[in-house]
Write the C-alpha cells for this entry.
Amino acid sequence: MEIETTKEKKAVIVSVKGKIDAVTAPEFEKALANLMEKGEDAFLLNFSGLEYISSAGLRSILSTAKQLKPKDGKILFCGLTGPVKDVFKISGFGTIFKIFETREDALKWVK
C-alpha cells in the first residue's frame, strides 16, 4: 500500500494505491491519525488507485470518522472503482459517507 497526501483548499487529499487489508489497515489509520494530530479535520480519500479494501480497512475509516465527529470534521471519497466500489455499496458506506466520481466534484463540498 502506498499513501500520498496533498493539501488542496481546506482538505487533505489522501491518495491510496494498492490494498487496505488486515496487514495495511493499521498503517492507513495511523497516517490519518497523524494528520488529525496536526489539526487536519477534512479528508478527501482518493481511492482511484485502490484495488481492494477489507473489513479491517472499513473499520479504520469508521474509527477515523468517529474521531473527527466532535471536531465537525469530514471524510469524503472519490475515485472508487471495481471491487472497492462494490464493497462500499454492499457495506452501506455509500449511505454513511459522501462519495464523488471525481476529486474536483468532492472539493466543491469543502468549505
The helical segments are 25-37, 55-68, 82-91, 93-96, 103-107. Strands lie at 2-8, 11-20, 42-53, 74-78, 98-100.
